[in-house]
Design a protein that fits this description.
Helices cover 75% and strands 0% of the residues. The protein has 17 helices and no strands.
Length: 390
């Protein structure tokens, strides 16, 4: 590995950001936890754009504002390298491959009533994703092992991720509050100020979307803008936010919406690109473009604002105590996600072999994560083409 990749300068070209995040977006299978793990591997472990504690705090902060977390991390990383232009470049490049893939599959779906199967491809990728997520959790363990309270917060988040995933956002926010109360920088009069310091300046940006509640009164753009502005708790929250409006508008049926979710999950990048499918159903290719832009627009606003706030408040011991508590819980949540993914794997020789090989390749950084996922996907295709034991 070259020294250039071991320690890169503090700025990147826009073309470089487009290439790096476009490549990441094209290979980022496995959901938000896997996407974040790939970013940690590429930009913390390999390129050293930032240290692990800074990455963990940024990740903790993105969990406290609406929007798809992995997309907001991509935007935030671009912002750190080149400001607002870098944020737009990195976020757009990360989203574009998935959006294009979903749009093409939506076209195929409405042409032939189905979509090409990708089970064989994903059978090879999923075990590698499990290892990638587990390694990301291990590398981000720092905030969770600083003291007994941090260990307890991480353990609680781990349990909640396994047993009650819908409460994950509450667990993360609660961890920050508990850590702040327990810190020497958390007197009671500062508590309310610290809790609102991060999201409060961003909430007015969501108020116009909050007012849009009648699906029959709004066009494609405003329905998707509303969903994007209220997207707390991960990409799957798009289901209750978008399905009622989409079905009520007559764009697609409930069954078709489930197919849209499956396509959003099967393609690389954020599952929120499900909105691209819904937009295509509503208005063809132009509808797909409008829906994609609208649902991700709030994420750009929140992530860029977040980057500015973190820069300004980085010296605040109060905010650091709060975010360190959230970061400890984020470690537990990612570890829990790794267990959930592991339990979902099929028990067959392919899964076992890819798990072991991924442990060696990714732990020793023999290949970039995106390259290894491509190899694993090809392995899955070859394995099933040879009719080996499933």
């Amino acid at each position: 590995m070259s020294s250039e990749h071991e320690s890169e300068p503090g700025r990147s070209s826009l073309a470089g950001l487009l290439g790096q995040f476009g490549r990441l977006g094209a290979t980022a299978f496995g959901g938000p936890a896997a996407h974040v793990a790939m970013m940690e591997d590429e930009f913390v472990q390999r390129r050293r754009w930032l240290d692990r504690d800074t990455f963990a705090r940024a990740l903790a902060a993105t969990n406290l504002v609406p929007g798809p977390n992995s997309t907001e991390m991509a935007i935030h990383l671009g912002y750190r390298r080149r400001g607002v232009p870098g944020a737009i470049a990195s976020g757009s490049a990360f989203i574009l491959p998935a959006a294009l893939a979903v749009a093409v599959l939506a076209w195929a779906y409405y042409q032939w009533g189905t979509t090409p199967r990708a089970d064989d491809l994903f059978a090879g990728i999923r075990p590698a994703v499990v290892v990638l997520v587990a390694l990301a959790a291990w590398r981000l363990r720092g905030p969770a092992q600083r003291n007994p309270l941090a260990i307890a917060l991480a353990a609680a988040a781990f349990a909640i991720t396994l047993l009650a995933p819908r409460w994950e956002v509450v667990a993360l926010l609660g961890a920050g509050v508990i850590a702040l109360l327990a810190s020497e920088h958390g007197p009671r009069q500062r508590l309310q100020r610290a809790i609102v310091a991060l999201p409060a300046p961003l909430l007015p940006l969501a108020l116009p979307a909050l007012a849009v509640t009648l699906p029959e009164a709004v066009p494609i753009a405003l329905i998707h803008l509303k969903a994007g502005a209220l997207l707390f708790g991960g990409g799957y929250v798009i289901i209750p936010l978008l399905e009622p409006d989409a079905v009520a508008q007559g764009w697609l049926t409930e069954s078709q919406f489930l197919d849209a979710i499956a396509i959003g999950q099967a393609t690389p990048g954020p599952i929120v690109t499900t909105a691209t499918f819904v937009g295509y159903a509503a208005g063809g290719w132009w509808g797909a473009l409008i829906a994609t832009v609208a649902i991700f627009a709030p994420a750009f606003v929140f992530a860029i604002s977040l980057g500015r706030l973190l820069d300004r408040l980085s010296a605040s011991e109060t905010l650091r105590a709060f975010l360190d508590g959230v970061a400890a819980a984020v470690f537990g949540a990612i570890a829990g996600a790794a267990v959930v993914l592991l339990m979902s794997l099929e028990a067959n020789p392919l899964s076992g072999a890819v798990l072991v090989a991924s442990g060696v390749v990714l732990l020793r950084s023999l290949l970039p994560s995106y390259a290894w996922l491509v190899i694993c996907g090809a392995t899955g295709l070859l394995y099933h083409a040879a009719s080996l034991p499933a």
